[in-house]
Write a structure and sequence with these properties.
The chain is built from five helices and five strands, in the order βααβααβαββ. It is α+β, with helices and mostly antiparallel strands. The chain has one domain: Muramoyl-pentapeptide Carboxypeptidase, domain 2 (2-Layer Sandwich). A five-stranded mixed β-sheet has the order 1-2-3-5-4. The protein is globular, with a radius of gyration of 15 Å. The protein binds zinc ion.
């Protein structure tokens, strides 16, 4: 494979990619290059933009959500989900360390992360986010 290869779950993510934040696109390209070069694999983008309705569907079973529905960076073109089961645990840990060092989320808020592994009701994935 090419050292920089991005796969998309469906056409939707492929069409949305040019529309999201340039910072997010830069981050995704860097992550794809890092993963391609070090692990010889492409990344698979599963989720980019999300509507309020989709946000409601994901968090709808959580009663806390309906008290004060929170917004998602995915609604603003600042979030990207990448399939994480393609990576071994040690690779994931290394990737998270790399992203944290190369792409700090907000120097004013060191507790905030650019990359996390989590499940938001839509399966475990690597969630990437940028401040702007
Ligand atoms: Zn996400």
């Amino acid at each position: 494979m090419d050292e920089l290869e991005i796969h998309f779950k469906t056409n939707r993510q492929s069409e949305e990619f040019p529309l999201v934040s340039p910072h997010l696109r830069g981050l995704v390209l860097d992550v794809a290059f890092y993963v391609g070069r070090k692990y010889g694999k492409p990344i698979l983008i599963t989720d980019l933009l999300r509507t309020q309705e989709e946000q409601d569907a994901i968090y709808g079973s959580n009663p806390e959500y309906w008290k004060k529905p929170w917004r998602s960076v995915h609604e603003f073109g600042r979030g990207c989900d990448i399939r994480s089961r393609d990576f071994m645990a040690a690779q994931t840990a290394e990737l998270l360390r790399y992203i944290a060092s190369a792409w700090p989320y907000d120097p004013e808020r060191p507790e905030m992360h650019t990359a996390i592994i989590h499940s938001a009701g839509n399966g475990m994935h690597l969630h990437l986010q940028v401040l702007s």
